Amino acid sequence: MQHKSDELFQGAAPYYARHRPGYPPEFFSELRRRFDLDGTQTVLDLGCGTGQIAIPVAAAVARVFAVDPDPDMLVEGKRSAAGTTNIEWLRGDSSQLASLNLPPLDLVTMGKSFHWTDRPALLTELDTRIRPHGAVVVVTAALHDAATVAPWDDIVRTLRDKYLGARRRGGSTYRGYQHSEETHLDVLARSPFCEVDVTRSGWSIERDIDAIVGLQFSFSYSNPAQFGSDERCAAFADELREALLDRYPNGTVTEPLTIETLIATRPTSRTTTRSATPV
Ligand SMILES: C[S@@+](CC[C@H](N)C(=O)[O-])C[C@H]1O[C@@H](n2cnc3c(N)ncnc32)[C@H](O)[C@@H]1O
């Protein structure tokens, strides 16, 4: 890891809880079906954020350990999970699992968080913690697909470049996020969890202008701390709101969303597969 894991999303947590879309019901029903989730399993949701996976999955298993290095994400997650009693919210990152006293795990889920980890080292460690028939489930936003680019992306980019510069940031440094050439599928395929099924699903949501503005503060590269002051955050929000209203005078926009799910298990007799379903 090139960054401090707990400073990547500074100030983002309330925006994350409010504006990130989470995952569609089909994603959770597929997990239930594929792993016969019957209220007895133990799940680690690593990089849990504000509980986009941890909270819905808790309804199908015995215990969820929701782990994240960002304390504010955990606060928001707990708030969203009010009434759910089988989630333990723990502060830690992928390099600190040894200190968390986790029991043997049936499933480890990582929603949009695997890229922040030292992937090979983490998978080696998970091999010691996941039961024989368990699995690693990695979910990404499939952003390499042009169909999933938000229709307002050009407007946001122009203003983001104006306020934050064109280089992508992560945490407090430009080096915070470095895109790896090696795909998640490649990393998994040479790990103990080398049997990988890849599926994609797509859906869409309606957003109003304030939700589009709020969404920007949920990203590591445009979280509130990146702007340096409340005044600059407010100025960015005002300019963005105005530009969006100019293009979308009725105030709502449909956003297409896609996820790619990689379900990785230890080898049985088959070889690595890629079974994409149409979006
Ligand atoms: C994009 S958010 C994903 C949140 C949620 N899982 C979801 O699917 O929406 C990424 C999360 O990973 C966490 N994170 C960053 N580095 C991490 C690491 N090395 N180990 C575990 N989590 C990490 C961040 O604090 C953040 O909450």
UniProtKB/TrEMBL annotation:
Keywords: Methyltransferase, Transferase. Pfam families: Methyltransf_25. Residues 43-134 form the Methyltransferase domain. One of its GO terms (biological process) is methylation. The keyword Amino-acid biosynthesis does not apply. One of its GO terms (molecular function) is methyltransferase activity. It comes from the Bacteria. PANTHER family: METHYLTRANSF_11 DOMAIN-CONTAINING PROTEIN (PTHR44942), METHYLTRANSFERASE TYPE 11 DOMAIN-CONTAINING PROTEIN (PTHR44942:SF4). This is Class I SAM-dependent methyltransferase. It comes from Nocardia speluncae. The lineage of its organism: Bacteria, Bacillati, Actinomycetota, Actinomycetes, Mycobacteriales.
